[in-house]
Amino acid sequence: MALDGCTDGTADAVARHRDRDARVVLLDLPKLGKGGVIQEGFGYCDGAFVGFVDADAATPPEEFAAYFAIALPAVGAAGAGVDTVGAFSLMVANFSVHVRALVANLLRRPSGFTVTPKEGEAGPQPRAVWPALALIAVLTGTSVYGLIVERSPATLNNVAFAALHVAVLTRGVLPALRPPRPALLETTVAADLVSGEAVAGEAR
After folding, report:
1. CA 125 to centroid of chain Cα atoms
2. Angstrom distance (rounded) from CA 167 to CA 93
3. How far apart are CA 102 and CA 95, in angstroms?
4. Which residues contact 41 (CB under 8 A, 6 or more apart)?
5. How far is it, in rounded angstroms, from Cα 129 to Cα 97?
6. CA dihedral 6, 12, 14, 19 (to 10 degrees)
7. Would you call 83 helix, strand, or coil by DSSP?
């Protein structure tokens, strides 16, 4: 049980359970924020699979066994033979998120979760992928400069690797740059209308 600077007696309650059950471990941490506490908690884990539940026990711990026994094989079966380049490219294009998280962790800064508005249907969002776009520009510019200066085998090899990275990054940022698809936009609008009608009905 990882506590985020709790002052409401939670530590004492957990300590009582720990005294009766050796599986219970109490981590009474300073105020780190949810993300920081989760990272610290994971550092104390040594199992093959790690999961966490919030203090409200919305996900009972006993459900993890069913999750790992059913969900993981199902995902593996569903993804068998499916092209995963898109998922890999999306992960690579969001490299800046991993870099920021690593730097924050090295500096021992508190981490957190942020729920952002889902406004992708409104139009292209280049700001969301600007680090990847900047890297694409640097790789492209460097490759062009290298070809102008010297077209040796070594340069061509480096340009080929740069082109591969540009292709992967471009695949990853395309969803943020494409205009909204009509079908997706209509579905979103319809969902918003239904939600609005439900709220209006409750208000009446």
Report:
1. 18
2. 11
3. 11
4. 2, 27, 52
5. 10
6. 150
7. coil
Mean pLDDT for the stretch of residues 102-109: 84
DSSP lists the bridge partners of residue 2 as: 27
**Cα–Cα separations (whole angstroms), residue 2 to 16, 63, 138, 152:** 15, 20, 43, 57
DSSP string, 14-79: HHHHHHH-TT---EEE-S-HHHHHHHHHHHT--SSS-----TT-SS-TTHHHHIIIIIHHHHHHHH
* 168 vs 132: CA distance, rounded Å: 10
Model pLDDT for residues 149-187, shown as the tens digit of each residue: 888 878 888 898 899 899 989 988 888 887 666 554 444
Residue-averaged pLDDT of the chain: 76
Neighbours of 173 (CB within 10 A): 24
pLDDT, one tens digit per residue, over 25-57 is 888 887 777 777 887 888 888 777 777 777 677
Q: What digits encode the pLDDT tens for the residues 124-159? A: 888 888 999 999 999 999 999 999 988 887 888 889
Percent of the chain with pLDDT over 90: 11
Written as six digits, the tokens of 51 are 């999961």
Q: Which two tokens stand for residue 81?
A: 């033979």
What's this model's pTM, rounded to 2 decimal places?
Answer: 0.48
Q: Identify whether the C-beta of residue 76 lies closer than 8 Å to the C-beta of residue 161.
A: no
- Rounded (10°) CA dihedral 177, 183, 185, 186: 170
